[in-house]
Amino acid sequence: VCTPNHVWMTTAGNRETAELSPGDRIWQPDQEIDRKKAPSWEPWKCRWLGLLLGDGCLRTTEIRLSAMKSAVRAWAAAVIPPWSHVRFHEKEIVLAGRCRNSGNPAMRWLRDMGLWGLGAHEKFLPSEVLKLAYESRADVLRGLWMTDGHRGEEVLSYASVSFKLITGVKQ
Description:
The protein has helices at about 45-55, 70-80, 105-110, 125-130, 135-150, 165-170; strands at about 5-10, 15, 55, 65, 85-90, 90-95, 150, 155-160. The chain is an alpha+beta fold.
């Protein structure tokens, strides 16, 4: 039971109960995660996923991160996968793989999650992230915040051109 002006998150955005029709889909939180069984990712995966979802180019032959902020550059450089090397340019960072004949492992990982090849409007937070241990999820969100978050005097905000990504962050 709820009031007619109760707001629900739907696939069409936030809507009041009175605006809903039978068959409309609303968001429901997943079951509580068992903290003792929740998987953790390697730190580089968490950091780089958050940063790449925010300011990454996932459509070229290399993984590229727009990184004009020094904090972003330092945070990304602090955790580099052992099989890769990072090239720092004036306004971007390139994560390049060293694995011969098998491609870039990070590209394969992004492809397996359905992210490789997506433009900014199409990016989303993979469902695997919501099932991770707290520390891993926090690092992914920290990367998103560093790229697309804003802190003003009286407001904290997060913005993205991707509705799917914003919806995932809300979860």
